[in-house]
Amino acid sequence: MTSRMLGIGFLTPAIISVAIFFLLPVLLTVVFAFTNMSTSTGIMGGDYQINSEQLRSVSEIGISEESVELLENAGFQITEAGLTALAEQFGDETAEELREDYLGETFTARRDLERVLRNLDEPIRQTRDRKTAADLFAVTIIGERFDTESQFRAALEKTGVDPVDHDTLTEFAYTGWTWTTDNFSLLLELPSTLRFAANSAFYVVCTLTFNIVFGLFLALSTFYLPSKTANTFRAIWFLPRILPPVLYVLMWNWFTWDNGFIATVTGWFGVPPQNWMMQTTTRAWTVVILINGFVGASLGMILFSSAIKAIPTSMLYASEVDGANRWQQVRYIILPQMRWPILFMTSYQTLSLLTSFEYILLATDGGPGRSTEVWALAAYHTALNNYGGNLQYGLGSAYALVLVFIGIALSALYLRFFNFKELLAKPRIEQ
Amino acid sequence: MTANSRIWHLVLILAIFSAPLVIMYVYQVIDSIAQPDPGSLVPGAIDLSNWRFLWERIDTGRPSIWVVTFNTFLFASTTAFLVTSLSATAGYALSRLNMPGRPYFLGGLIILHAFPTITLIIAIFIILQFLGLFDTLLGIILVKAALELPFGVWILKGFYDTVPWEIEMAGVQDGASRLRVWWELVLPQVKPGLFALLIISFLSGWSEFVLPLVLAPGSSTQVLATFMNAVIQDDATADFGLFKAIGMFYSIPVIVIYLVFQKQLMNIYGGGTKG
């Protein structure tokens, strides 16, 4: 087997799954962002229908009163289809007689048609039967379901609605999703858009600063500690990274809620029990940033620690011989060497903080109010989980599309700026 | 570096910062087996009633914990297996095999590795509905495996890069096909990598929360993350003893793996995974 064939064969399964769950979703996010897809439109397309409830709002889209009247009560028309049905239920003779005298005729009032039916030579005697018979000739499209556009238009034709209104009505009656740019104009109009963007920016800047400063502090301090003590602290700080998020956030809930740790301790000093996470916006932000910050600092510690270890010890010894104290050693020897790891951490975390919402969802769910609702969480809430129940996939995709663009742009940028091959260093796994 | 007499300053500062985490860990255990009285932090008597979810339904309409645990195990292990086997072949192809478009695949891989996949979840939600895989374990397994794949391929490609060419040369010269060389000579060389990837993707699957929450919300496909979240959401009284007991049970495999493979895990996470 040639290596070329083997290569293609080896790569195919990975490419297929990447295509279905990476490339297709990227494309579809773009596509969906230009639709009004939601729970009520469904995702599979739809049919044509106007129900009696919708009829009330028809006049708002510029349909004349007469047309509305006709839609609702277009009257009765003697048609071949109706006659066939009549023949089946009430006998051929009645139908034949009606055909001869009245085919093609329309009645605006049910009363008129019923009178005709009563006065036939072969009359329909029961009142109830006459009602049933009249219904066979009813011309109304309210509440009726049409599978295709042409069927719906044909039915419209029959009602006698002014042809001027046909296009608008057809569009109105469609229950599936349609193409639209409304999502983007809505995003530009809504005041919340700016707020979510500002929330995201605030969240990313604060958490990132915390991550880097604290991660550096952890890495540096554990570097100078005797290895046993250092390992204890490393273990404490590594755990948040591998504990399941649901459990990690639960521990924070316990720490901050009104029957939790802070409330208990402050309670000893007479502070009334309160929720230290959700009471005010400031507290919510503090907790959100700490929750993410502790996890991020843990990654920072690991990355920076291995970068510090890579500094040749001779440099450190030399600085000590030259009489540098601890602080000078950190400032002039170690920190300059940390430029690339810090830059890498910054770019990597910017992207991942901007788009991840798991910890915020679990902790505050964007509250109190929507004060900690970041952009990514807004996309999730709009499209996948909201209290209204109508999930707006289209609008949510528009939110997500912004993030997808930022994601592609930044990761392509990183590819150019960093030599990723060096930065994502080869795994060093002890055997 | 040289020991310093003022080192305890540093230890003290670190200890203060670490205190919240340590308190959380300690009471995570205490609250689940010996919950203190309200308003106190002194552990009470040993009380296993918080663990009742193991032998009875905590409330009606919730699936049994063992079904949920089985789902979680199935999800995590199948995902790990899929990621590892697909990465083992794709990583080798990218590392060693001469084929058309290799630089583009490599560039694409690096971009995918950095790209935040969570932004795609709305589109994936709809794709799964189209495919009829919505609310199935198979659906979330495929999605999770696909999303972990760039990381896995990247890690294993790194391992393959370190395997000496001479091993393959020797095999090829003795008349073995490239496929056989890979299977019999190269794969054993990257065993530590395969093993590490298996562990990491298992842990990642075990902890996964958002994908099952969005893509498999039904009670028959619940995993421990969504089960625990549902219990927390539905309980108005904030029964932390119960929550923490479930949390303990949930995190047992994570803690065990952590204790056994601590050093290897720190190293591979230091290699630049998503954070």
From TrEMBL, chain A:
Assigned keywords, A-Z: Cell membrane, Membrane, Transmembrane, Transmembrane helix, Transport
SUPFAM superfamilies from the UniProt entry: MalF N-terminal region-like, MetI-like
Main localisation: membrane
InterPro entries, per the entry: ABC_transporter_permease, MetI-like, MetI-like_sf
Residues that span the membrane, as ranges: 201-225, 283-304, 398-418
Membrane topology: Multi-pass membrane protein
PANTHER family (alphabetical): ABC TRANSPORTER PERMEASE PROTEIN, INNER MEMBRANE ABC TRANSPORTER PERMEASE PROTEIN YCJO
Assigned protein family: Belongs to the binding-protein-dependent transport system permease family.
Protein's recorded name: Maltose transport system permease protein MalF
Organism listed in the record: Flavimaricola marinus
Lineage, highest ranks first: Bacteria, Pseudomonadati, Pseudomonadota, Alphaproteobacteria, Rhodobacterales
Gene name per UniProt: malF
TrEMBL record, chain B:
Record's keyword annotation contains Cell membrane: yes
Segments traversing the membrane: 7-27, 65-92, 104-131, 137-160, 181-203, 209-230, 242-261
Main localization of the protein described in the UniProt heading: membrane
Localization terms from the record: Cell membrane
InterPro entries, A to Z: BP-dep_ABC_trans_perm, MetI-like, MetI-like_sf
Gene Ontology molecular function: ABC-type maltose transporter activity
Cytoplasm among keywords: no
Membrane topology, record value: Multi-pass membrane protein
One GO term (biological process): maltodextrin transmembrane transport
Limits of the ABC transmembrane type-1 domain: 69-261
Keyword vocabulary terms for this entry: Cell membrane, Membrane, Sugar transport, Transmembrane, Transmembrane helix, Transport
Domain of life, per lineage: Bacteria
Family: Belongs to the binding-protein-dependent transport system permease family. MalFG subfamily.
Name the record gives this protein: Maltose/maltodextrin transport system permease protein MalG
Organism: Flavimaricola marinus
